[in-house]
Amino acid sequence: MRLGDRIPLACRTHMVNSLGAIRTSSTDAFVTASGTAMQLYSPHSGTQFLKVEQHSPTFDVPENGWKDVPSLDAVATLSGDGRKLFLHLLNLDPAQSMSVRIRLDGQAVDPAGEVWQLAPDDFLAQNYFGAANVAVEHHPLSGAGAEFTQVLPPHSATTLELKVK
Questions:
Q1: Which of 44, 38, 49 has the alpha carbon at shortest distance from 13?
Q2: Which of 43, 82, 93, 152 gets the most CB atoms within 10 Å of its CB?
Q3: Per-residue pLDDT, 18
Q4: Is-contact 90 80, C-beta < 8 A?
Q5: CB 133: neighbour CB atoms within 10 A?
Q6: pLDDT of 86 over the 80 cut
Q7: CA separation for the pair 161, 66 (Å, rounded)
Q8: Overall average pLDDT of the 21-36 stretch
Q9: What is the residue-averaged pLDDT of the chain?
Q10: Which residues contact 6 (CB under 8 A, 6 or more apart)?
Q11: So what's the pLDDT on residue 102?
């Protein structure tokens, strides 16, 4: 999403089996963990990107030569009709929850909203035939406003869906 201004179209190849979002057998099927992420973002994203400033602790990945990778990744989108604001938040820390202070400049929102989240217990969780270890969770959000705090579980993807006033 962050690269949407430079990458106007992205598509998933190998939708079924191989590296796909869906795995099948002759009698059964399941959605993989990456397919579940697609289920999170597809219905809960807007078409207009909004500017986001973020500040968070960082970490290094020496194996790849990466330094100062932010533990928080954030993207904001607005629905085409301007009635819904979507805040997409990733906590990349594998073990620690993160308390994120959110400040909305220029967007008045209803204090009640919705939280859509992927937060499996295990960092390496996968879905299998008969076992959905990675699933989209949904619960209400209260207390949203010009400034509020949201706690993100470790290694989670969270989308806050807010109605714009």
A1: 38
A2: 152
A3: 75
A4: no
A5: 14
A6: yes
A7: 32
A8: 90
A9: 91
A10: none
A11: 97
Please state, in angstroms and rounded to a whole number, the distance separating the CA atoms of residues 50 and 29: 37
Residue 68 contacts residue 60 (beta carbons within 8 Å): yes
Angle at 20 between CA 16 and CA 26, to 5 degrees: 40
Q: What are 121-148's pLDDT values in tens digits?
A: 998 999 999 999 999 999 999 999 999 9
Distance CA 91, CA 74 (A): 9
- Residue pair 46/84 in contact (Cβ under 8 Å)? The answer is yes
Cα angle: 57, vertex 97, 160; to 5 degrees: 95
Burial class (CB in 10 A: 0-12, 13-18, 19+), 1: middle
Statement: residue 106 has pLDDT above 90: no
- Element holding 120 (H helix, E strand): none
Instruction: Name the phi and psi angles at 33, rounded to 5.
Output: -60, -45
Q: Which of 99, 91, 93, 94 is nearest to 122 (CA)?
A: 94
Residue 38: phi and psi, rounded to 5, are -65, -35
